[in-house]
Amino acid sequence: MYYSPESLEAFVQSVASGSFSGAARALGKSQSTISVAVSSLEDHLGFALFERTSRHLMLTEEGRRVLAQVREILAANQRLDDVALRLAQGIEPRVTLAISDHWPAGHHDRLLSQFAEKFSEVEFECLIAENEDVIELLKSGRAQLGLITKQPHLPTELVSRSLAISGHTGIYLANDHPLCQQATLTLDDLKGIRQLQLNTWSRAGIQRSEGLVWSASSYILLLDMAQQGFGWAKLPCWMVDYFGNESLTLLPLAGWPQKLNLDIIWSARHTLGPACLWMIDQLTTAKD
Questions:
Q1: For residue 257, is the peptide bond before it cis, meaning its omega torsion is within 30 degrees of 0?
Q2: Which one of 92, 100, 109, 234 has the largest count of C-beta atoms within 10 Å of its C-beta?
Q3: In what residue span(s) does the HTH lysR-type domain sit (predicted)?
Q4: pLDDT in tens, the chain (288 residues)
Q5: Are 212 and 196 within 8 A, CB to CB?
Q6: Right CATH number for 91-166+261-285 from 1.10.290.10, 2.170.16.10, 2.60.120.10, 3.40.190.10?
């Protein structure tokens, strides 16, 4: 029996969005298109997927049982598309990678050297972004790949793979601050000092810290502000080692520095070419 990818995607997105209207907005289609696609899938399956008596979408018992299988089919379709593209060898003219500053520069340099050797005719663009900004760049199609710290939740259209390479972040303060002379500190000791905090362009999910805060959209700007003595900041350790000019002190706080797991992510709605697929393979097999 044949189930159209469109009806399967409409079902999964409806579950994720909680409504047909939400699924329509997420997929860029009309609500009636989503409703018809789900109804068509129900007709082919021979049972209802959602309760129709509630104002909100609720899965039937049958719907709950088939949801995992439908997700597997969609994932298998994506893998088949990837394999077909590899076989066709239709190399894309441009690769855009959005990366978090938590991605260590040394690993990035090696990746680009290998990419330049293998895909010398492919244009490469690197965008620096964090968290919600990387997600928005992928959803909009502005970037094909994103390298990001592991997120607790991702939109259903995004696919992720874990990296063996990790990042580390520490809390830093300019060397001439009196706190830098103390052997041990707690976070309470920082309450009277201005915090320099990352603030992404996308406002969704931003959590403001208590007390006086200055913010910037990149860690390199926060590093510069910390060097000028404007406050303390959570910064990628590799960045301070590379660009800090020994002007910042890593504060001796319990639990810091912290290890950050990294993921490579991309949108399942945008077909990836061989160069992007090669980059994913390189990133997921690289070691610290």
A1: yes
A2: 100
A3: 1-60
A4: 678 889 999 999 999 988 898 899 988 899 999 999 999 999 999 999 998 776 778 899 999 999 999 999 998 888 787 667 655 767 788 999 999 999 999 999 999 999 999 888 889 999 999 988 999 999 999 999 999 999 999 999 999 999 999 999 999 999 999 999 999 999 999 998 999 999 887 754 445 566 789 999 899 999 999 999 999 999 999 999 999 999 999 999 999 999 999 999 999 998 899 899 999 999 999 887
A5: no
A6: 3.40.190.10
